[in-house]
Write a structure and sequence with these properties.
This protein is mainly α. Helices cover 73% and strands 3% of the residues. The protein is built from 10 helices and 3 strands; from the N terminus they run βααβαααβααααα. The protein has a 3-stranded mixed sheet with strand order 2-1-3. Helix 1 (24-51) packs across helix 10, helix 2 runs antiparallel to helix 3 (94-127) and helix 3 (94-127) runs antiparallel to helix 5 (138-164). The longest helix has 34 residues, at 94-127.
Length: 310
Amino acid sequence: MGQVNHTVVTHFILLGIPNTDVLQNILFFSFLAFYLCTLMGNLLILSAVLADPRLHTPMYFFLSNLAVMDIGLSSVSIPKLLASLWFQNKVISLGGCMAQVFFFHFLGNTECLLYTVMAYDWYVAICHPLRYLLIMNRRVCALLAAGCWITSSFHAAILASLTFTLPYCGSNVVDYFFCDIFPVAKLACGDTYILQTVIFTNTGMVPTTCFLLILASYIRIIYSVVKMNSAEGRLKATSTCASHLAVVTLFFVPCALVYTQPQLNMVMVMAVHIFGSVVTPMLNPAIYTLRNKEVKAALRKLWGGQTPAR
């Protein structure tokens, strides 16, 4: 049989956001502002947690992990998007594309698992307050956080390896603003059935399981809050849980739209991904900070202000 010559793909071209040629400068400065706010907000939370001994608790330990993930998740796609908008540099190497796929799913899956761990932390704090420090000790917290990171690394490694073991020998133009599995796999000149099966199994099973565990935790939390005799205790528990529910909603709604609706219009998918990569990582520190007296006091102390005596 005669062999067919193919040009092996060594790089990809990211088309970016469609129909925005006249808006590139506006988009560049908008995304840059969001990205800088994301970095500043999450770095401030990290600094406050590290600097204030009163914040060396399980809740703020997991919150600092979330801050690291928000910085990483926004950094997966935004710097390359900014370079594309300002320098018209739309080329990304094969290795760079692989890195974007891996880290996007690594950090996204870690965030999903971490939200579940944070819900469990609040379940123990509210439903078993007398045993809280015994159950959520430093060793348990470290193991839970490490489990989130390690499990997600295997998840992302499987998806990335399946994506890039496919042969790419035709077009190298990715109709998207960063390398994600769906737009990249469309360019493969091999069978993508196994990849698609693993995608819908993994990206469907993990968020669904996490969502059900979070829902179960909050049903039990709500039941315990309603039974509280102290109005102040109910208010504090409700306020903190509302912050967590807000960030959980910001994460799971876009995730559900993108990965459970494969027929969704590409423009809508791109808008959802931009919101999740640009807006959500910036909102998370604001949501936790604005409703949290301890974090605000730690930030004032960090900036040299006086913290009210307790």
